[in-house]
Design goal:
497 residues; alpha/beta; Rossmann fold; 2 domains; six-stranded parallel beta sheet; 20 helices; 18 strands; 40% helix; 19% strand; globular; binds adenosine-5'-diphosphate
Length: 497
C-alpha cells in the first residue's frame, strides 16, 4: 500500500506545435488551449510547451518572461534555445525561442520543417533536464511535430535523472500528416544514426524516415481523438501506411473524444450572434436565421431549411459528395451556405454554385470566425459528410446551437452524433454510412421532410442536441486515467468526477 507521500498531483507537460490563443491552424490548437486547463481541474499540475512563433500577437510576447537559455545538440551543432513563460488564466505556457526557426510568417510549410520540429522536440527534452520548473511525470506529445520526443527521451536522455521516470503519451490528431523526411536527417540533425533501434523504428521507406512512426513506436501510451478513429487507424483505408503499428500496439491505444470550449460556444451568451437564445427559449434562433439569410443574400424565407457547412475545403471533408448532389438538393428548395477556404478547385466549384443558384446558395470563400458563429446560430442543419474525421469540432458546436448535424458515420462524427431513430424518437442529428452522394442526399432530404412536416419533432431533436455534454471535463478525466495508469505509484489526487 503506497504511503500518503505518494498522493500528489501528477505533473503533465503538454507539448504541442500550436495552442489557442497564441497560434492555431486546426483542431490541435483548440485542444492544446483547452485540455491542459481541464486537466488542472481534474487534479493534475499541467503546463504547455510550444514554439515561440513570430506570428504570436505582440500583446502576448510583451508579457513573456525569460526563464532560461541553453544550447540544444543537433548532431554536430549546438543550437541556441531560449525558454520563455507566460501565465494565462491560471495556466503556464512555455515557449521555445529560436528566431531562425520560428520567427517566420506562418507555422508550417517551410523547406526545413523537419529540422525545425526536430529541434523543437529536442529542445523540450533538454528543457526537462535543465529547467527545474519543467520537471514532469508525463510528457504528452501531439502529432508529428513532437513525435520525436519519446524517441529522444528513451535513446538519448535515459541517463538523466530528470528523465528516467518520465512517461510519454502520443496523441494522433490527424494521421494524414506524419513528418516524412530523407534519412540523411538521422546523422545530420537527429544524432540517432548510430542507434540501431531508433533507426529501425524511424525508417518507413528505403531512404526516408517518419517522425510520427517513431513516436508511435516509442511512446508509453497512444491516444487519438475519438474511439471510432482509434479503431479506424488500425485499418489500411484510414491508417495511411501506419495501420500495422496501430494494430500491433492496439492494447495501449485509446480514443478519447475532444471537448469544445463551452464558454466560447454558447448561444445564450455569444456576443457575435444577432440574438441570444437557449434551450429554455428558442425564439431568437429564428431571428438568427433571418439575419443570416439577409447577410448572405439568401431568400428571406423561414420555411426553407438552411443547410450550412463550415470548414476547410479539402477532399477530407467529403466535398465531392456535396458537389455531385448539389443540383438535386437545390431542386428541392433547400438553401445551402458554405464558409471555408482550401483547395483551389473546391473553392472554384462552390463559387460556381453560388453564381448558378442566386439567392438559394451562398459560398463565402474566407476564414471568418465571427461569421462562423452566425452560421452555427442561423443554420437549421450542419452538413459534414467527411471521408475521415478524427474528431471534428463543427458538429459539436452546431449541436450546442441547436443546428442539427448531418454527418457521415466515421471517426468522431460517429461518436458524437446520435442518429435520429423514428421508433424511439432518440437522436441529436442524422447520419449516413457510405461515401455515396445519393445516400447523403436521401438522408438530407429525409431530414428536410421532418423540418417541413413535423416542427414539433424538429424542436425535440434540437433540444436533445443542445443538451449533449461536450465540455472538456469528461475528456480530461479519461486522460487522467491514462496518466495514472502509467504512474501507478502515485495515488490520484482528485477522485474521478
Ligand atoms: P479540422 O480540424 O479538420 O479543420 P474541425 O471540425 O475539427 O476540423 O475544426 C474546425 C474548426 O475551425 C471549427 O471550429 C470551425 O468552426 C473552424 N473553421 C474552419 N473553417 C473556418 C472558416 N473558414 N471560418 C471560420 N471558422 C472556420
Amino acid at each position: 500500500m503506497p504511503t500518503s507521500a505518494h498522493r500528489r498531483k501528477l505533473r503533465i507537460l503538454f507539448a504541442s506545435s500550436e495552442a489557442v490563443p497564441f497560434a492555431k491552424t486546426g483542431g490541435l490548437g483548440d485542444v492544446a488551449g483547452s485540455l491542459p486547463r481541464a486537466l488542472k481541474h481534474a487534479g493534475a499540475k499541467a503546463a504547455v510547451i510550444m514554439p515561440k512563433y513570430g506570428t504570436i500577437p505582440q500583446e502576448y510576447k510583451d508579457r513573456m518572461k525569460h526563464v532560461a537559455d541553453f544550447y540544444v545538440p543537433l548532431a554536430w551543432r549546438n543550437v541556441y534555445c531560449g525558454i520563455e513563460k507566460l501565465e494565462l488564466q491560471g495556466l503556464d505556457f512555455y515557449f521555445v525561442d529560436n528566431e531562425a526557426y520560428f520567427k517566420r510568417d506562418g507555422l508550417y510549410g517551410y523547406f526545413d520543417d523537419g529540422e525545425r520540429f526536430a529541434f523543437f522536440a529536442k529542445a523540450i527534452c533538454e528543457a526537462i533536464v535543465k529547467v527545474p520548473e519543467l520537471a514532469c511525470d508525463v510528457l504528452h506529445c501531439n502529432d508529428w511535430q513532437t513525435a520525436l520526443c519519446p524517441v529522444f527521451l528513451r535513446e538519448l536522455y535515459r541517463g538523466a535523472p530528470q528523465c528516467n521516470n518520465v512517461k510519454t503519451v502520443m496523441t494522433v490528431h490527424n494521421i494524414k500528416f506524419q513528418g516524412q523526411y530523407g534519412d540523411k536527417m538521422l546523422s545530420d540533425i537527429l544524432g540517432l544514426a548510430d542507434i540501431p533501434a531508433a533507426r529501425d523504428q524511424l525508417y518507413c521507406d528505403k531512404d526516408s524516415i517518419n517522425f510520427m512512426k517513431g513516436g508511435l513506436c516509442y511512446a508509453d501510451a497512444l491516444t487519438t481523438v475519438s474511439p471510432s478513429y482509434a479503431y479506424e487507424l488500425q485499418m489500411p483505408f484510414y491508417g495511411e501506411g501506419l495501420d500495422p503499428i496501430f494494430r500491433r500496439r492496439s492494447n495501449i491505444l485509446t480514443g478519447i473524444l475532444n471537448g469544445i470550449d463551452t464558454s466560447i460556444w454558447n448561444p445564450k451568451t455569444d456576443a457575435m450572434i444577432p440574438a441570444n437564445y437557449s434551450a429554455d427559449d428558442l425564439a431568437n434562433k429564428a431571428e438568427c436565421k433571418r439575419a443570416l439569410q439577409e447577410e448572405l443574400g439568401l431568400r428571406q424565407d423561414p420555411t426553407r431549411p438552411l443547410v450550412v457547412m463550415i470548414g476547410r475545403l479539402t477532399n477530407q471533408k467529403g466535398l465531392g459528395l456535396v458537389r455531385y448532389a448539389m443540383d438535386g438538393i437545390m431542386r428541392r428548395g433547400v438553401q445551402v451556405a458554405i464558409l471555408g477556404t482550401g483547395d483551389a478547385d473546391q473553392e472554384e466549384a462552390f463559387r460556381y454554385f453560388d453564381q448558378k443558384y442566386g439567392d438559394m446558395m451562398c459560398a463565402r470563400i474566407a476564414f471568418d470566425n465571427a461569421l462562423s458563429h452566425r452560421m452555427y446560430a442561423g443554420g437549421d442543419i450542419l452538413l459534414m459528410p467527411s471521408e475521415f474525421e478524427p474528431c471534428g469540432l463543427s458538429q459539436m458546436i452546431a449541436m450546442r446551437y441547436g443546428t442539427l448535424p448531418l454527418v457521415r458515420e466515421t471517426g468522431g462524427l460517429r461518436d458524437s452524433v446520435v442518429p435520429y431513430n423514428k421508433f424511439t424518437g432518440e437522436g441529436t442529428g442524422f447520419r449516413f454510412s457510405n461515401m455515396n452522394a445519393d445516400e447523403m442526399a436521401d438522408t438530407l432530404l429525409g431530414a428536410c421532410e421532418i423540418f417541413w412536416t413535423n416542427q414539433e419533432l424538429w424542436t425535440k431533436l434540437m433540444l436533445q442536441a443542445m443538451a449533449t455534454d461536450f465540455s472538456w471535463r469528461r475528456a480530461a478525466n479519461d486522460y487522467m486515467d491514462i496518466y495514472h495508469g502509467l504512474h501507478p505509484e502515485v495515488i490520484r489526487y482528485n477522485k474521478r468526477r
